[in-house]
Design brief:
By secondary structure, the chain is an alpha/beta fold. The protein contains 13 helices and 21 strands. Residues 371-385 have low confidence and may be disordered. GO terms for molecular function: metal ion binding; metallopeptidase activity; tRNA threonylcarbamoyladenosine dehydratase; ubiquitin-like modifier activating enzyme activity.
């Protein structure tokens, strides 16, 4: 999987951009995408703001648009101060998914005007660029270096209710590949997915993604295989437990036997480690398979900062303790799909400041933590169940299938209805909750990438500075 650059935007921003670029009069329209950057294995441009150029300020026709240079003045200053990349985007009402001679001529005039206000990366030189959108919402983008030479953006990814990929080598827009087909597998080969937590549920998620044909898997887990893991982590052996092998290394070795062409990056670190965060930020998609509130908190923040869709999965088995003995109340699982600019795990109450504090207290002072639980100070006292492989299989399948359904739509109902899926095996119930169920609060850290402080957390920035 070789990709030089990706332009990423939230589905909500894409809808707003589309409505402005195609007002219904058949004429071209324009906007500015202000992007932050994540530079690692490849360049990711994160659309932080969409600035719509007023129609009345432009000279518009069906094949050409001209807009005043002073529209860019405020963005030039911000680009220099904040290190933003500016992508100038306009519509092609005729449906041409490419750059015309007129577009080339316009870019040759405006890009030198923008470049004094950029901060090109050493050895890369690509900073500002342009993009076009067609009436079906498809996009193509390119970047320029200081010599005014263009370089195509390999992928424009839009993460909303559905997940849409617009590849730089597409000659025309068309329907998404059908789920479960060779066309789906061909596209999955070009994607990278990070699985955070590779234990009971995570090992199953990673195995399914591997066998679906994902081109690059980044697996992150600091833990090692123990004897008590062997009943729920796929592909682990008694020898792995005896040797204390890292869970991620076990998965990587197993994947190499069945899918040697898949690139597996194994990171035996906690997600709070700088290396783990930087690796995960390079992925197109995130799967959160951790059983801690802090892990979910960090994955949630990463998805916000790096504009990544997050599929978070959890399994719970609440137990009651009546006089006659312990009783299982529920055998339940949950899959949350968190889209950029949508409601986060925090917005949905998956974790709270109180739960994070209590979890921290459990680590540093177990006795005090036990006292708080006994006194009822910790909300949600249900225990995270020891992983049961049959339940984990169900939860993992729901999570991976939710990704498939959003990237390769097949459902009769809109994906917006499936922000959360819950199952209860005791009562035989399946519940789905829509995005409208939750109230989204936009974070000031949205699309900040890996800027300082890291993920908006000073404590992580301190670790980055000392590592």
């Amino acid at each position: 999987m070789n990709r030089a650059s990706t332009l990423v935007m939230a589905g909500a921003d894409h809808v707003r951009l589309f409505e402005h670029l195609f007002p219904g009069d058949g004429k071209e329209a324009a906007a500015v995408l202000a992007c932050t950057r994540v530079q690692g294995g490849h360049l990711k441009l994160l659309v932080r703001e969409v600035a719509l150029v007023p129609h009345e300020d432009c000279a518009r026709s069906s094949i050409r648009i001209t807009w005043p240079a002073d529209v860019l003045d405020v963005w030039q200053e911000r680009a220099e101060i904040e290190g933003l990349s500016l992508i100038l985007v306009h519509s092609h009402p005729g449906g041409y998914l490419g750059f015309s001679d007129t577009d080339d001529e316009a870019d040759q005039g405006v890009m030198p005007y923008l470049f004094p206000f950029g901060r090109p990366d050493a050895g890369e030189g690509l900073w500002h660029g342009s993009a076009v959108m067609t009436p079906d919402g498809a996009m193509r983008a390119r970047l320029y270096d200081r010599a005014n030479t263009s370089c195509p953006v390999d992928l424009v990814a839009v993460y909303g209710d559905d997940i849409r990929f617009f590849w730089g080598d597409q000659t025309s827009s068309g329907p998404r590949p059908m789920a479960f087909t060779e066309e789906m597998r061909d596209e999955l080969k070009k994607l990278s997915i990070a699985v955070i937590g590779i234990s009971g549920t995570g090992s199953i998620v990673a195995e399914q993604l591997l066998r679906l044909g994902v081109g690059k898997l980044i697996v992150i887990d600091h833990d090692k295989v123990e004897h008590r893991n062997l009943n729920r982590i796929l592909n682990t052996t008694l020898q792995d437990a005896r040797d204390g092998r890292a869970k991620v290394e076990v998965f990587k070795a197993s994947a190499a036997l069945s899918h040697p062409d898949t690139e597996v990056v194994a990171c035996a670190k906690r997600l709070g480690d700088t290396e783990a965060i930087e690796l995960a930020a390079q992925a197109d998609i995130l799967f959160g398979c951790v059983d801690s509130y802090d892990g979910r908190h960090l994955a949630d923040r990463l998805a916000t900062c790096a504009i990544q869709p997050l599929f978070d999965v959890g399994v719970l088995i609440p137990v009651r303790h009546p006089p006659r003995g312990a009783i299982i109340s529920n055998i339940c699982g949950r899959v949350d799909y968190v889209q950029p600019l949508g409601s986060t795990l925090s917005d949905r109450g998956v974790y709270t400041p109180a739960l994070l504090a209590a979890e921290y207290l459990r680590e540093v002072d177990p006795e005090a933590h036990a006292g708080q639980v006994g006194e009822g100070y910790m909300p949600g006292t249900q225990e995270q169940a020891p992983s049961v492989i049959t339940v984990n299989m169900i939860a993992a399948s729901f999570a991976v299938q939710e990704f498939v359904a959003r990237a390769y739509p097949y459902r009769s109902e809109p994906s917006q209805q499936y922000a959360r899926i819950e199952f209860d095996l005791v009562d035989g119930e399946l519940t789905v909750l829509s995005e409208d169920t939750f109230v989204a609060v936009r974070s000031s850290d949205y699309a900040t990438g890996l800027g300082s402080p890291l993920l908006g957390l000073p404590a992580l920035e301190d670790l980055r500075c000392t590592s």
